[in-house]
Design brief:
- It is a single chain.
- The chain is mostly beta strands.
- The protein has three domains: 135 residues, Jelly Rolls; 106 residues, Jelly Rolls, CATH 2.60.120; 137 residues, Jelly Rolls (Sandwich), CATH 2.60.120.260.
- Helices cover 6% and strands 37% of the residues.
- It has five helices and 26 strands.
- Strands 3, 17, 20, 22, 24 and 26 form a six-stranded antiparallel β-sheet that branches. Strands 15-4-16-21-18-19 form a six-stranded antiparallel β-sheet, with no helix packed on it.
- The chain is elongated and about 90 Å long.
- Belongs to the glycosyl hydrolase 35 family.
């Protein structure tokens, strides 16, 4: 027995002969969305976190390194590791105006290294392997130097073999090389710990907590500064369109609106890969048919309208890496076009039931289009019955094309919120290529 199985698809055959469902032959409407920034912009204020040190009064201290989750108990994504390093004035790297090398090994997921209160560098792990190694030259001075490392956990694992045993945080070893003594092991010396950020403790993301610190604005607004809180207020936009924040100008952190957590943002994480024209030939692989290479893994963050008040909504953001808050905007999402792809002979469970029960198959193949509420179909951008190519927003005709493909849709759909058209050759002016399984592709504008 022979089966027609399109590439990269799965078929269901209840009787082991007849396909009633195939993942590559699903006829449904698809939509293209447009994000429209809401005018007016946001007026931002900022508050920058101070870098803690090992001698602060609100720290815990012990010899050696602790695992992060056992310390934070998931009360925060953040745990500070802090220690002091004494450097003699006769160190060769000081005389030669060179820098020593700090190497830190961590179980993940991200790490920011500060030397004497100044950011020295940052590194993060990957999805497959969250472990990371920071290795960078650091500027030390004669006397006591304060090393403060902020370890960041990006959520907790919830699946995988023995995931409850997975670690996070700085577990070592930690070494400082380039000294007169060679390499100094800092792993087992005395370390101080502090859970979370000061802004978290003060609940800066809430209306009451946000008034507990002094914020700066205008020319003093922090730009591209790590560990900075930002806040702004805005009024709820009119209408019912879904809303989102465009965070493309930021790096990594968290967002709150009226005290409710929008979630973690990480636009600074760029999607790497080899994007190109999709080719379904050969075996499936996750590296095939990739899109949006060299773009943020996520740019838009949904804002539930149920969280909003008519006026004076508080937007608070904590930024780890540093970004440009003035590039953030609130946007409306609207459906600009709807498309339908209908394949002749597509499998149907209902048709199979009718055939097995001896009933005649009277099911009629139809193309359905529907615009969102308050919008109507204003134009038919494309329609082709035959062997059209492409996807929604990028269709094109082939040599097999029915010349009256547009007519039925222009007649039945223009000015309507929704419409349907029977998919039979007579509707489109006849069969453009007999003895060939055809499809219909249609694209309509909503306004």
């Amino acid at each position: 027995m022979q089966y027609d199985l399109p590439p990269w698809s799965i078929s269901i055959l209840p009787d082991c002969r007849t396909a009633v469902y195939n993942t590559a032959r699903i006829s449904s409407q698809s939509s293209q969305m447009k994000m429209t920034p809401i005018g007016g912009g946001l007026s931002w204020e900022s508050y920058t976190e101070e870098t803690p040190s090992a001698d602060d009064s609100d720290t815990l201290s012990t010899s050696g390194l602790w695992e992060q989750i056992n310390v934070t108990r998931d009360s925060s994504d953040y745990l500070w590791y802090m220690t002091d390093v004494s450097i003699a004035s006769d160190e060769g790297f000081l005389k030669n105006e060179k820098e020593s090398l700090l190497t830190v090994m961590s179980a993940g997921h991200a790490l920011h290294v500060f030397i004497n209160g100044q950011l020295s560098g940052a590194v993060y792990g990957g999805l497959e392997n969250p472990k990371l190694t920071y290795s960078g030259n650091v500027k030390l001075r004669a006397g006591i130097n304060k090393i403060s490392m902020l370890s960041v956990a990006v959520g907790l694992p919830n699946v995988g073999l023995h995931f409850e045993t997975w670690n996070a945080g700085v577990l070592g070893p930690i070494t400082l090389s380039g000294l007169n003594e060679g390499t100094r092991d800092l792993t087992k010396q005395r370390w101080a710990y502090k859970v979370g950020m000061k802004g978290e403790m003060l609940s800066l993301h809430t209306l009451s907590g946000s008034s507990s610190v002094k914020w700066v604005k205008d020319l003093l607004l922090a730009q591209k500064q790590p560990l900075t809180w930002y806040k702004a207020t805005f009024d709820a936009p009119e209408g019912n369109d879904p809303l989102a924040l465009d965070m493309g100008s930021m790096g990594k952190g968290q967002i709150w609106i009226n005290g409710e957590g929008v979630g973690r943002h990480w636009p600074g994480y760029i999607a790497r890969g080899d994007c190109g024209e999709c080719n379904y030939a050969g075996l499936y692989s996750e590296t095939k048919c990739q899109t949006n290479c060299e773009k943020p893994s996520q740019r838009w963050y949904h804002v539930p309208r149920s969280w909003l008040k008519p006026r004076g909504n508080l937007l608070v953001m904590f930024e780890e890496w540093g970004g440009e808050p003035e590039g953030i905007s609130l946007a409306k999402r609207s459906t600009t076009r709807v498309c339908a792809d209908i394949v002749e002979g597509q499998p149907s469970l209902k048709s199979w039931h009718m055939a097995t029960s001896g009933k005649s198959n009277s099911l009629q193949l139809k193309a359905h289009l529907r615009c969102p509420a308050e919008l109507k179909i204003s134009d038919i951008q494309f329609a082709s019955y035959g062997l059209p190519q492409g996807t929604c927003g990028n269709y094109h005709e082939s040599s097999c094309h029915a010349h009256k493909s547009n007519d039925a849709f222009e007649k039945n759909c223009i000015g309507q919120q929704s419409c349907s058209v029977n998919v039979v050759p007579e509707i489109f002016g006849g069969d453009p290529c007999p003895n060939t399984s055809k499809k219909l592709a249609v694209e309509a504008m909503c306004s």
